[in-house]
Structure formats: structure tokens, C-alpha cells
Hints:
By secondary structure, the chain is α+β, with helices and mostly antiparallel strands. It has helices at about 40-50, 65-70, 115-130, 130-135, 155-160; strands at about 1-10, 30-35, 75-80, 85-95, 100-105, 145-150, 165-175.
Amino acid sequence: MSLTVTTWSLEQTAPTDLLPAAAPEGDDVRIxxxxxxxxxxxxFLYASVGGDIHWTxxxxxxxxxxxxxxxxxxxxxxxxxxxxTPAGYVELAAQEGGVVEIVYFGLIPAFRGRxxxxxxxxxxxxxxxxxxxxxxxxTPTKRVWLHTCSKDGEHAxxxxxxxxxKLFDTKIEQEPDVPTPGPWQGA
Length: 187
């Protein structure tokens, strides 16, 4: 079995492109950088956020491969916590020439629909634009980009467009329909 998947690539080319979302009112949402590369924690976030939307590309990575990815200069994981509980994350990765990719972004299903996503994305985009301030060996950011696809959450594309991202590429491909790691029924 296979799925037809549309993948959209979006970008910002200046920090002023960002149209930030307001922080959710009344919630105790904090966004903190996970400064110590932790394959266990990153795999937990990846599987928890992407389990119901077919994120499977990293599940076959070994511990050493996760560690290698997370230890690269300019790779950062920023985690949103709601009252101390991980709610979602954004992973940034520096690329050559001042380009930063938002490699992964999303919320654990129980935290979707609570206005945390726009806030977390806004915060992550700001951190992408100032990445070289924390990694002096990197070229200052000139472009921030990401991709989303038809398997992602129903509000993903709208959130990216509302934050000021512009579409620059669209691809349609067949992908294998593989089982996902969860979440379990009813989660």
C-alpha cells in the first residue's frame, strides 16, 4: 500500500518576515532549550509528536546516529512545557551559507488546539534567526526554511503561513503506507 503525499517547502528570507503569534493566555507555557543532546528525550519528542501523523523516518536510527545528529553545531531542540509537562518541540539545524532548517516542529496530540503551536513556532523561528549568536562559528542566518506535508496536522500549513512563511516548492510523491508508533487508541 502507498500514499500520495504532497510536500510543501516554505521559507522566510528576513527576520522581519516573522508574524509572531501571541503566547497562550492563562497557561503556564514555557519554552526551554534542551542544551544537552539526549537521544532518548529527542526520540520521545519525535515519536510523541509524530506518532499519529506518520513520522517514521528517524525511528530506525541507532542511539549513536541520534547522538551524531543532535551533536552537530547549530542543531538545537526547543521544548514547550505546559505546567511542567512536555507539550511539543521545534528542532533547528544549521546548514551552509547561513541557512537554518526547522527540521521538526509539532505538538503532542493532547496539547493541540490550545494556541501553543503558533507561540512555539514563533519562538522557534526567532531562535533560528539568532542561531549564530549562540554558535559563533556559524554564518549569521540569512534564510529559515521548513517543509510540511499532507500527512501533517490539519492546521500546520495555516500556522506556517500565518507566521509569515512563503511557499517556494511543491512536490507530489508516492510513499509507503507504514504503521506509526502511536499514540495509542484514545490518546
